[in-house]
Amino acid sequence: MNWVTNWPPAAVAALGGIVGLLVGALNYRLVAGPYRQLARAGGAGDRAAILQQRILFRYLLRMVLSFVSLLVVFLVVGQPMAIIATLVGLILASDIPLFFLMRARRERS
């Protein structure tokens, strides 16, 4: 038991959701920058290849950050609702905006 497990379940879930939203926003910022640069550079050339490698590296970094945030919430809180709220926060803050960013890029081309 730790100090967080004494909180009400709604507060623990809110804490997990806030952690998920913060890490998700960081994940979005990591990947969205190179995506925008790639859209400006076009799809061919050396610059595009470098940006594609940067996007791949940042996706891997994003996966590690997401896993670490889920692990921290599991170790600190250990309640399923907080872990689910963290996962929902990660999806809301990183995956959904990236989906709309890529969709807008496809519609423009």
Q: Please compute the radius of gyration using only Cα atoms.
A: 17 Å
N→C terminal distance: 54 Å
Class inferred from helices and paired strands? mainly alpha
- Poorly predicted runs are none
Report on this model:
There is one protein chain. With 109 residues, the chain is mostly helical. The protein has 3 helices and no strands. It has helices at residues 9-41, 46-76, 80-108. Helix 1 (9-41) packs parallel to helix 3 (80-108).
In short:
This protein has three helices and no strands.
Overview features:
single chain; 85% helix
Strand and helix layout:
Elements (H helix, E strand, L loop, with lengths): L8 H33 L4 H31 L3 H29 L1
